[in-house]
Amino acid sequence: MQITHLSGSRRAIGLGHGRAHAPLIHASIEVYDRLFRDFVGLDWPQARHQAERFGGMIEQRFPAILEEMAGIAEGAGLELADILTLNCRSEISLTQASGGCSAFALERAETQWLAQNWDWRADQLDNVVALHIEGDDAPPLVSIGEAGMVAKIGMNAHGIGVCLNAIRSRTCGEGLPIHVALRRILESPDLASARAVATDSRVCSPAHFLVASADGRAVGLEVHPGEPGVLSPRGGAVTHTNHLYDAAVTCQIEDFPRPDSRPRLERLDTLLGSLAEDAPVNETQLFEVLADHQHHPLSICRHFNPDQPAEERMETLFGVVMNLTERRLTLRHGKPCESEDSLEIRLTPA
């Protein structure tokens, strides 16, 4: 995988993204056309209609990102409605379809780490992109995500990083769509501003955002249209998979996790708990956590599972480890157990 460098105005960033990844963006639309049909019985034009209602929420809370979406559409030879639909795919599909993902923040030896596996349908593997964005009105940032979408998992030059866990729930209200909110966090200058995305702008459907900063602070935010749940570090770590567990949220929001979510969380806690609190760690050790296969097929590193219905099979499509203190992101595209080949991206501290 190559890094795509984008810079300039919102429109210029969008145009560059759309032109560089037009084939992958079209392929992503094909993937989500199939997914929407499988899970919610919508074809692409119907999904576009569903996405329209989120445009006003974005216009109110983060209007500049719509300029970038329009640029992506122009660069890829599509309409803004297509790119809006891609960026609202969680809100359209997660009432029925839940991804995987195992994420953790870890502070050791005055270094703040943030890491996760992204688990999703295997037909989206080749549509993963690494974006290095230097915008005129935002800090330099790196986002690892899906072609045509404005953000997913990453970090910025201020040392703010974010990971994502999908939550399957029927709740959807007022706020920013999940992936637009992630981009807003990636443009935040500090942890307080990142948290404000969840508490002030709000997020219109449930998810877990794991946010950390280079100064050694981390917080799990179980976001939804109301006040988010807050998960503080224990032993220097915050862990999360795909179920809600903050009592302030579980009393309000009903989720429908798959059976593998709790075993993966317990395994994460066990593996991280075995790392001495006063000893440094490195990327190799943390990728070993992401490559763990205990309890397969309910393991942290997810592989093809023939016992699941075809439309529900989720596999690990990439693993990422971020050293926020040093502004270094390391990506393994594909399952972290299968290759040690990595893409490393560094940012100059702001």
UniProtKB/TrEMBL annotation:
For the Peptidase C45 hydrolase domain, which residue ranges apply? 110-336
Lineage of the source organism?
Bacteria, Pseudomonadati, Pseudomonadota, Gammaproteobacteria, Oceanospirillales
Keywords of this protein's UniProt record, alphabetized? Transferase
Specify whether Glycosyltransferase is a keyword of the entry: no
Any one Gene Ontology MF annotation carried by this entry is: transferase activity
The record's PANTHER family line, in alphabetical order, gives: BETA-ALANYL-DOPAMINE_CARCININE HYDROLASE, PEPTIDASE C45
* Matching InterPro entries: C45_proenzyme-like, Peptidase_C45, Peptidase_C45_hydrolase
Record protein name field:
Peptidase C45 acyl-coenzyme A--6-aminopenicillanic acid acyl-transferase
A Pfam family it matches: AAT
